Amino acid sequence: MYAGFRPSNLLDVPLNADPGAKCEYSNFTSHMVGVVAARASGMDLKTLGETHLFPKIDSEPGEWITDWEGNYNGHADLHMSARDMAKFGLMYLQDGRYKGQQVLSAEWVKESLKTHSENAWTIKIGKNFRDMGYGFQWWSANAGDHHFHFAWGHGGQMIALLKEYNMVVVVIADPLHGQHGSKPWKYEKQNLNLVGDFIGGLPVLEGENRE
After folding, report:
1. In a structure prediction context, what are the per-residue pLDDT tens digits for the chain, which is 211 residues long?
2. E strands along 120-185, which residues?
3. What is the pTM of this model?
4. Best exposed site among 19, 65, 117, 126 by fewest CB in 10 Å?
């Protein structure tokens, strides 16, 4: 969203390009998805999560920031521990199941992790983030000889899924709230490359699918 821009209505925000014409990540668009989910369910996002998600993965998230209209932030500002982030990632790694219980539709998980937009991030991160794509709130990339998916938060928070190893990699870091430009991006890239270099250095397993 543009700095200092506070619309009276969420739908007052102009589009940067026609839908389907260009891939450009937008925090505000992710937030809008959360607003749509809340209105469709008749619950705010926090109540929705506390009813249908968090208890089912043994998770107790912390503070959740709201916007100027009282909507829980759909793209960031949900405080979670590394363990709870790992549980969320494990649920996706297991096709929506957690401890044998189907929490999310397996079809939805599969569709979420598809690469719907290729070359979704063109700013160079490091040698082990290549061919970055985007699905439904999940990124994808290649590192070394491995293909992986990841959820990426401000400051370099990350939940990375490596299916071949049945592995979830989690990074938590200073979210660098209110900081923009080259200095905070330098720190964020270090967090991202920590994950990319780790995955890129893993050996290839026999029969591994290198998408």
Report:
1. 434 445 556 667 777 778 777 777 777 788 888 888 999 999 999 999 999 999 999 999 888 888 888 888 877 678 899 999 999 999 999 999 999 999 999 999 999 999 998 888 888 888 899 999 999 999 999 999 999 999 998 888 999 999 999 999 999 988 887 788 888 989 999 999 999 999 999 999 876 555 5
2. 130-134, 139-143, 146-153, 157-162, 167-171
3. 0.86
4. 19
For residues 169 and 106, is the Cβ–Cβ distance under 8 A? no
Tokens, residue 31 = 């937030």
> What is the spatial distance between Cα 187 and Cα 191, in angstroms, rounded to a whole number?
7
Runs of H (alpha helix) within the chain:
27-41, 45-52, 82-93, 106-112, 182-200
Please tell me whether residue 66 adopts helix, strand or coil conformation.
strand
